Amino acid sequence: MTILTPQAFINKWRAVTVKERSGYQEHFIDLCHLVAHPTPLEDDPKGTRYSFEAGAGKQRGGKGWADVWKRGFFAWEYKGKHANLDRAYQQLLQYRESLHNPPLLVVCDMETIQIHTNFTNTVKRVFHLRLNDLLKPEGMQALRNLFFNPEAFRTDQTPELVTQRAAREFAEIATLMRRYGHDPQRTAHFLIRLLFCLFAEDVGLLPDQVFSKLLRATRNRAAIFTTQLAQLFGAMRQGGFFGADEIPHFDGHLFDDAEVLPLDSESMALLQRVRELDWSNIEPSILGTLFERSLDPTKRSQLGAHYTSRDDILLIIEPVLMAPLRRRWAEVQQQARTLATAYEQAKGSAAKRLQGELQQVLQGFADTVAAMRVLDPACGSGNFLYVALKQLLDLEKEVIILAQELGAGSFFPSVSPEQLYGLEINEYAYELAQITVWIGYIQWLRDNGFGTPKPPILKPLNTIQRMDALLAYDAAGQPVEPPWPEVEVIVGNPPFLGGNKIRKELGDAHIDALFKLYAGRVPAFADLVCYWFERARAMLEACTTQRVGLLATQAIRGGANRKVLERIKESGDIFMAWGDRKWVLEGAAVRVSLVGFDAGNEQERSLDGSAVQTINADLRAALDLTHVHHLPENRAICFMGPSAKAPFDLDAETAMQMLRAPLNPNGRPNTDVVRPVASAVDLVQQQRGKWTIDFGLLPEDEAALYEAPFEYVRTHVYPVRMQASRVKYAGNWWQYARPRVEMREALRKHQRYIATPGVAKHRIFVWVQPEVLCNQGTLVFARSDDYFFGVLHARIHELWARRTGTQVRDAESGFRYTPTTTFETFPFPWPPGQEPPGDPLVAAIAAAAQRLVELRDKWLRPPDADAATRKARTLTKLYNQRPAWLDKAHRDLDAAVLAAYGWPNTLSDEELLARLLALNLARGGVQL
Predict the structure, then answer these.
(1) 8 A C-beta contact, residue 550 and residue 530
(2) Where is the MmeI-like helicase spacer domain (predicted)?
(3) CA dihedral over 571, 575, 577, 579, signed as positive or negative
(4) Are 698 and 762 contained in the same domain?
């Protein structure tokens, strides 16, 4: 191999003035000799991974994508001496995908080698090697790394880290400005302008570092900075000169005026510090979220918290927006290549006609992509919209590259932010959504070699509106549905707000209007996100949209929430879902469901990333338990415990004082109304020793005869009941808000009853004495026989409960049991009340249940254990450990219960559920 010294290389090429085409291959070969690296022909004679004129085999000849290419190392473009290397770099950016996205993009004019990093998810860097640099050890090492070790150019800094730091710094500036009493929204608007100026300067939209120069020149003279910045804003508003620099026309409502809020010296110092960041590399998919937290005082605490990543957002954007386009693109590519082959072989008018058809096919698909309108009806600070825009732009770039490869000409991307529609009620998020989209668009054009938008740089995005997406009022003051724009695709992450919290968060008037407007379509107290699902479903039914992809709390799979998914299945279908997936909401990790649905046109279905035949309304693909029947024989057995909604509970000392009091004027003791109370915690974890005052259904005059309890309630409960949020219970203020009349009647004839937590990781049932009142967090069963207890505690019933109940957050947090969807649909071996007396199968279940309870009680309260040991032992801990003896007791019980059904003990979970479903439908009168 020929060896060349740095000095000999410099002497040769310093004097060369030949044009690029005449000398570039010899220049590159000399570089190979300089670093002792094989030339393309020496290393790869076939040119499949290392070659000159990479991609030169295009239709009708034509120059390759790069002058030199080495797979996994670099793409290299040459220009003549003193040529515009930026233009060469833009060319490489357009074609890098065709060259397998090499980590380094190199441009060279035979005097300067410019190395641009192209690593995924790292801040882009530029290195310059000039002829004289090759005389230095570090210069030669950089050249060797280019050929042998491209990883040496990688930086650890990521766009996410840059964006996080920028948001933290801006939060400090926002805090300082709020000290001076500036209006929060005016402050936010001003800071977003500063943000954009920093970005615009680093991507070259503001010329000659004009903003940085202004900062440096006035860093200790804030008043002058304010005056000068107003002039710069004025120039950005309409275009014009700022000093000797010509400023492009920006507009876009961001520079709708030239207002500048005053900054103090501390704020100026912070701005100078944040100026040092590389704003060209901020990450748009998280930009809006992080800056909303920095500008909105109510979200400042979330600054260091997690955020939704681009990869998570793609779980919705790809299958809902992009999948149909990609399928169509595969067909278009095949059609285009067939035309291109015929065009290559044709001559004269035939060739011209085929070229025209080829152009029409590719331009037509590009027009289809550019016509896709996307709505996020709860767009927040715009991250879903930005990711949708980027995916559309990336797809259109594939079309542009193929058109150039096949000789069908070239064109500028026509996908634009104007295709994006958003609805958002928060003023900070609304403004950030627009700038997030524009920054992302400008950044994409720059990073892909398409320059900058034509002036005005920022066009007003009137497609993003600040409004309530669910509720408006007509001229008569009546609630109406606000119109949503007609689009092809709806995507987004609507707000999660549990049914019990909606009224507290949004207020009585708002919620009453919402309930009235959506009555019959969304169950009252369903999660707030369900209203977005129903609105989107209605748009599908009205043919004003085509596909929808939304997030919801994973509780949408069951209970009242699931009704909206059932309506979706009635009028269309679900084609994509993730039933239970980690997500980040307001900085916190939560569990969500992702749901993609349409009018029933999509033929391909995917659940949790795998292809399936169908997706049920419970977001499962197997057995559909969403249409089970409520069995009449199961009614009036299972009840939710009474709900107090006021401080009726007592500590043990206060309760004992009442219980020791003399008889009341009615001759009755306080034990009539002062009772032990049990919550879910008391049932399966620590017993708290709480008591409660329970007047049941007594009228006020009779309740008042229990003197001490009544006075306690009048002192502690009455003021609460008179509050605006509780005044609806004021009529019977001395009673529990929901005393559960039917439950009390059903329990009256039993000497004990069964209870279970409403929400629990393990479905555990316990015996409760009749004097104990189980509250709203529990479910109680008006049965006192061991057989019934045994069936409830069997595996078969727990399987049914898990599939018909709803998961709270994750599996560890537990699932919800309900009297209706869970218990009233469960088919017992015999309908309750119809068990054959004396049947050995019934006796076997009762015996197994008794044995289970006996063993558990001995473990919970060993006779020789001290108080601390007993206190540490709980049913939850026992079932977490599930020792061998407990497992055997349950297996014995399971076998006895399955024998009562007449089913073998070897059935899988799905087989058991299938048989239970068939039994439910048969008892419900459905022909199988």
Answers:
(1) no
(2) 187-255
(3) positive
(4) no
